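Tokens in:
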């Protein structure tokens, strides 16, 4: 793979497109992904060489030569994705084309001395097919009947990870400092393991399978228990110097504001994270917090929080100039309540020429976090010298069958 294309998700975006809409010609792929015909020819040749694409029948033409269609070899590989939260784990088994073969969850205590052993136990139960200690969220499936080879494990965490391939985690919300997640899981499972901030992982999945597939520059904002952001620039997730880019929840709003979970005062998350919303509701209702649609206090709380979020989002948009903003997370279930404050505050603060930017709010399922983690692995076959490092080499070896 070309060393100048490090971290670019374009090859996997081609696979994801074909997995979603079915066989297409090279011309159709170029149009859907806004790529040059020459680039598509080169990239699809590489993918065919890796056994991921195959030429199918000729597509009838209204004139001229019929177009050769390309189809996905769906059995090329699969990955397990794990989302770590403060009280549970979500695990998914995902094929290279994005099809979810199964999803599970189990309770989890990150403060336990055996936390990493319990995490490894959960992954091992999926790998072995026993499902011991897990609750199935969706029935396990083998898709078209073939079980693709397992390429590796992706883990998404609500914190910073300096190096995906090493996987040492600093996550205040989990109580983890320099936690050797990647090292411990690799030693126990004997599989490639990639660890990443959960919002960055979501952005990778959005680039492959979501609305970000047709955009090379976009923002992902997440709202819920916390607040996060991921920046995709020129088709690549921007990680920063130490893997900590996108800590949007810790943009300062008011230095005299409430204490945030990070220890500072007045962070955005302290106002618009779930704990901040409940605190505001209690203050307005005299101690009774009700954040449900139709409740006047809830409407007021969400409108005020939406305005704070909208102003902060406008600042971020003004800085990075994305094509589109995708809003994700469990908090999107209440988006109609957020919108009353968010929309006017956002538009008022945007730089002229950017006020028509599209804000795309996607439907949410908790397994989306884990699918993002799986996308870390599914993108690494095309990352010859990028963030995946040695783990990427191991994933590629498993993909082409040189490792059992």
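Residues out:
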């Amino acid at each position: 793979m070309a060393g100048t294309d490090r971290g670019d998700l374009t090859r996997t975006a081609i696979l994801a497109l074909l997995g979603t809409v079915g066989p297409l010609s090279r011309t159709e792929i170029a149009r859907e992904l806004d790529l040059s015909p020459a680039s598509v020819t080169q990239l699809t040749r590489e993918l065919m060489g890796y056994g991921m694409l195959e030429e199918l029948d000729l597509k009838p033409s209204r004139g001229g030569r019929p177009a050769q269609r390309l189809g996905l070899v769906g059995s090329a590989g699969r990955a397990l994705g794990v989302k770590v939260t403060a009280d549970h784990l979500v695990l998914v088994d995902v094929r290279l084309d994005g099809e979810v073969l199964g999803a599970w969850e189990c309770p989890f205590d990150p403060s336990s001395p055996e936390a990493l052993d319990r995490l490894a136990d959960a992954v091992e139960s999926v790998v072995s097919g026993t499902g011991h200690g897990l609750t199935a969220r969706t029935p396990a499936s083998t898709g078209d009947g073939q079980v693709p080879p397992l390429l590796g494990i992706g883990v998404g965490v609500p914190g910073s990870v300096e190096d995906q391939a090493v996987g040492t985690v600093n996550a205040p919300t989990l109580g983890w400092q320099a936690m050797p997640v990647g090292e411990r899981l690799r030693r126990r499972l004997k599989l490639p393991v990639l660890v990443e901030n959960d919002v960055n992982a979501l952005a990778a999945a959005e680039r492959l399978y979501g609305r970000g597939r047709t955009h090379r520059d976009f923002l992902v904002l997440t709202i819920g228990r916390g607040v996060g952001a991921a920046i995709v620039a020129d088709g690549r997730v921007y990680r920063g110097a130490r893997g900590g880019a996108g800590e949007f929840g810790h943009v300062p709003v008011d230095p005299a504001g409430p204490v945030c979970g990070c220890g500072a005062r007045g962070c955005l998350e302290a106002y618009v994270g779930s704990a901040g919303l409940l605190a505001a509701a209690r203050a307005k209702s005299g101690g009774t917090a009700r954040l449900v649609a139709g409740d006047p206090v809830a409407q007021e709380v969400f409108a005020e929080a939406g305005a704070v979020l909208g102003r902060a989002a406008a600042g971020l948009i003004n800085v990075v100039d994305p094509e589109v903003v995708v809003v994700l997370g469990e908090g999107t279930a209440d988006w109609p309540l957020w919108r009353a404050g968010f929309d006017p505050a956002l538009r008022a603060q945007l730089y002229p020429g950017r006020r028509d930017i599209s804000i795309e709010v996607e439907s949410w399922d908790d397994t989306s976090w884990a699918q993002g983690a799986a996308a870390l692995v599914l993108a690494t076959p095309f990352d010859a010298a990028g963030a995946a490092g040695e783990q990427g080499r191991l994933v590629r070896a498993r993909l082409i069958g040189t490792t059992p």
